[in-house]
Amino acid sequence: MTRQRLRRHRDSSWRRLLLLGVAIAASLWLILSQLQPLKAQSVTIRSDEAIGVKPGNPEYRLKTADLSSASVSLPMPQIHPLPTPLAQWQDVTDAGDYFSEIKLTPVDYLVWSQFPVKIFVDQPKDPNESSASNQRFQKWVDAVLQAVGEWNTYLPLQVVTQREGADILILRDRPPVQASLDRETGKFNIPRARSAQTRYEFYLRQTDKAAQAILSQRLTIQLSPHQTDHYTLATARHELGHALGIWGHSPLETDIMYFSQVRYSPQISVRDINTLKRIYQQPTRVGWPLAAQTRGEE
Ligand SMILES: [Zn+2]
């Protein structure tokens, strides 16, 4: 090889290397950009088929389909009075909110209107037993109760010992891993295990005060037993945010409702509460009596 040819050869190798670099960068970007929604999905709230069973009447099932086709007479959307702590909440720092990220459920915003909201937290079967697994369970309970205590500043909450009649259940369960079929490849996508999941269901609640049954929500949080106490607390904070009405995610990682788990877990932020307050100022169908009785019940 002459020196010139060698140089040309070297030039083309460099060009090839450069091209290869660009190609790698492009595919990396493609992978990363696709990772983003995937990552979000792994902690995204589920819009489950919401099925509510009226207590004491297992035949009466309220399905999402019923709700959207209005085969039951749903209450008209109305605004509930703000609970006192939210009414008193003033943001002087003008931190803004992420209200635009909040998704509507089939009955609009998931606002609570009966306070205190009753929360059941899973308990070890035999609390007096001092085994290592029981101690781990107790630490899980402590972390969850701390998160409940933090939210209690903004919405009146009450921890109850009975599962029945609770508005929010916090269970020490590993959330199910949902595989989905990729139609193009014919392969199953198995997402990484979730650490938590929150889902809602609706039911009709009879009260002494109202003649008509009240359209009500019940939330179930499944929170993994396999996290450090630090992450259990952070996850409980986040999932409780969903259960209390923040049905969406913040784009900022300084908010607890950021869509992904971060190493540094923030405290409930001003923006979180600004968002919560705006949600509670919206009209919703939940928490109001049905417009007319659909069944001839006394
Ligand atoms: Zn979430």
From TrEMBL:
Q: Which GO terms describe its molecular function?
A: metallopeptidase activity; zinc ion binding
Tagged with keyword Ubl conjugation: no
Ranges where the Peptidase metallopeptidase domain occurs: 108-282
Record SUPFAM superfamilies: Metalloproteases ('zincins'), catalytic domain
InterPro entries, A to Z: MetalloPept_cat_dom_sf, Peptidase_Metallo
Which BP terms in the Gene Ontology apply to this protein? proteolysis
Q: Which UniProt key words apply to this protein? A: Hydrolase, Protease
Q: Carries keyword Lipoprotein?
A: no
Going by the entry's taxonomy, the superkingdom of the source organism is recorded as Bacteria
Q: CDD domains in the record, alphabetically? A: ZnMc_MMP_like_1
The protein's name in its UniProt record: Putative Zn-dependent protease
Record the organism. Answer: Allocoleopsis franciscana PCC 7113
